[in-house]
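In the laboratory, one determines a bound structure by crystallizing the protein with its ligand and collecting diffraction data. In a computational setting the workflow is compressed into a single prediction: the sequence and the ligand go in, and a structural description comes out. We illustrate the idea with guanosine-5'-diphosphate.
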Amino acid sequence: LPEIALAGRSNVGKSSFINKLINRKALARTSSKPGKTQTLNFYIINEAFHFVDVPGYGYAKVSKTEREAWGRMLETYFTQRENLKAAVLLVDLRHQPTADDIRMYEFLKHHNIPVIVVATKLDKLKKAQVAKNVKLVKQTLNLDPNDQLIPFSAETAQGKEEAWRVLESYL
Ligand code: GDP
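The predicted complex, in structure-token form:
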């Protein structure tokens, strides 16, 4: 099956994103604890593709050794990935992307992977703030004009149809 990688710092809303896309209340549980940062989880979506969950990053307490092992695992996967079509990078639309978000985006671009930025928690923003924050996210990541940004809410399902459309365009 084709694969779509799914990356984002811990607690950004990865499981909520997957669950909303496939209309489940609580199937996916992507949050991994520090110490469980070395496995890639595969989720079969509608028997059409795999989401390859890249363990959440941004833990303050992960040791250097663990961080390095995590980096090696990602390198291995992203250099061997025969079926990988694109990556979804989840960010929180309320905030400027973190240094870890920027590093992850640059890592994916370094490997020539198309990235779909899903900017989630849209429902927590006032309407007037949305365009401004979208611009901030794009600027901070230095978003490639070929990459798309989709404002998304797992609460209201805003952005869900667009997310499906864009995902399908890569499958
Ligand atoms: P993960 O660690 O990346 O898998 O994050 P979760 O999906 O577990 O979400 C972390 C927290 O953010 C949970 O309390 C979710 O209910 C909340 N959350 C996730 N997405 C949204 C969203 O779009 N809107 C709102 N309001 N809360 C969200």
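The longest helix spans residues 64-80. Keep in mind that any predicted model is a hypothesis to be tested, not a measurement.
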